[in-house]
Structures are given as C-alpha cells and as structure tokens.
Amino acid sequence: METLLLTRTEVHTLLDPLELYPEVKAAFASYSLSRQIPAQRAHSVLPHSDASVMVLFPGLMFHIPAYTVKDHAKFPTQSPSIKGVINLHDLDTGQLLAIMDSTYITAVRTGLSGALGTHLLARKDAKSVAIIGAGVQGKLQLRSLTYLRTISRVFVYDTSKERGKSFASLMTEELKIPITVCKSLDEALYDADIVVSATWAKDPFIFLNNVKKGVHITTLGPDEPGKCEVSAELIEKSLFVCDDRNLAVQMGAIGGAGLTISNIHAEIGEIIINKDLGRLNDEQITIYGSVGLAFQDLVAAWHVYQKAREQNVGKYIDFLG
Fold this sequence. Notes:
Elements: E1 3-6, H1 8-14, H2 17-33, E2 40-45, E3 52-59, E4 66-74, E5 82-90, E6 96-101, H3 103-121, E7 128-132, H4 136-148, E8 153-157, H5 161-175, E9 179-181, H6 185-189, E10 194-197, E11 216-219, H7 232-236, E12 239-242, H8 245-250, H9 253-256, E13 266-267, H10 268-273, E14 286-289, H11 294-311, E15 315-317
Parallel strand pairs: 1-6, 7-8, 7-10, 8-9, 10-11, 11-14, 12-13, 12-14
Antiparallel strand pairs: 1-15, 2-3, 3-4, 4-5, 5-6
Helix pairs in contact: 2-3, 2-11, 3-4, 3-11
C-alpha cells in the first residue's frame, strides 16, 4: 500500500478550522472520559540556542482506525519557529497511510483547543482580550476565539514593538476589532477580561496583582520542562484547568510553577462533559493551561487525510518498493 504525501500548502487548503472545531471538542471529552493509553511527549534539547525536538505519541481516538506519531522541532529564532511532520498509521496493521507537514495542523489545533478552554471558562460577558506574545499562535488564538464569542477590544503586548504593530495592523484589518499596541505588560493586562499568553518565557511574568477579579487566563507557553508564564501564587488563588493532569505537572504550567497535581481542579474534557465543574462565579479567576496532546494531531490529520482522498490531493510513494 502506498503512502500519501501532503505539503504544508496542501494541508492548508484541506483544513478548515470551523469544520474541525466540533471534532476537537468531542475528542477532548472522550479523552477525559476514557483513555486506555495516555498521550506521551518525548522531549530533547538540541545543540543550538533554545532549540528542541519533541515526539508526540500515540495519537489515539476510539472512533478513528488510525494513530499518529508527530516529529516536532522548535527553533524560536527561525520562521516558522515550529516545524515537523505527522505520520498517520493504520491502527490494525501499522501501515503508514500518510506523511503530512505539521506546521499548520499544530497551529490550528492549538488555536482551537486554546479558544475552547478560554470560551468555556471565561465569564459569559467577557469581551476584552489581552494577547501576550504577538506571534503566529497569538494570531490564531484571537482568530479562533472570535469563532466562539464576540470580542469588542484587544490589547496586545510583545517584547518586540514591531511584532506588536504588525499584529495589530494585520488582525485589525482581518477581524475589524479595535486593537491597542501596549507599551507594557501591565497596560495590556489592566482592563482585560481574558488574557491569552503564548510566549517562550522560562520565568513567570503574570502575577496576582497584575490582573483583575473575574479574569480568565489561558497560558500556552509551558509545553515542555522549564517554561512558565503564570506565577504559583496566582495559580493557587485561581480555578486551574488543564488538558492532561499528568503532563501539566511533568512539563506544563503546573510543573513550571513548581506546583503539584493537587493544584489542578479539572481537565477541560471533564468540563465539556459536566459544565458544573467550570467557573463558579463572576469574581473567580480561572486559568487554562494547555500542553497539547497527541489525539489532537490524530483528529486533525485524519480529517485532512479523508479530505485529501476525496479531493484527490497530494502524491503517493511506496516506501516498501
């Protein structure tokens, strides 16, 4: 059997975030309800400044007859900073069904999962958003959030003023939402109902005295050991929700802040199943810490694979020939 090869451009044409969203949401619920094999992430640094490589496996979901293994490299000084491929295998035989570029899939599934957690935990009337980190993920998080709720105002802060200005120019034109480029982190956080942070930070920079009551924070930076955005004190004073308890401690926001599994209130999949586990009142601070899980790659890759076959997109190669 031949293997389907899909480039980044082909994946981009096949993957519609709005089509994928309900599949991602259902998969989170399924993962928290019954997972026989937990998602795993094998991480290693590389001999370059801040560069690393990670393998996410096995991407499993009970209704999909396939699994994924993703090779995922991070080079913060490069563009794009995240590169890799997703290998899609037949679940029963191990046959390599497809190899596809992972850059856009990773961005979209992370954008959707972050927006999902944000939307479920933020106050119903929350409309002002602070984006901390004006990179690709910051743009995708804001765009994904507008699929789910009305956003009236955006504050953006990045250590690079030029990135902040570029973000504001691009996203204002696309979303038609007023965007303020902030000179400081405090300015961005001051009046935000929702804070979304996607940075490479290794030390916490969002503290209890930075944010107002009732705020929701989504922290996406900590996805490997040694990264942290939100302080331990703030997490302890908040209702903290993650995508996977064990990984949140091993390499996510909880471990990065030096805390333990006892500081985790619930997984986002559990809140999808039972909304009573979510925000208790409008004064409460909520935090969603997402590491990123292998089943998200499977859901997206299977979606792309099916559409590619329907539309006759991509080329085939016989690795066993």
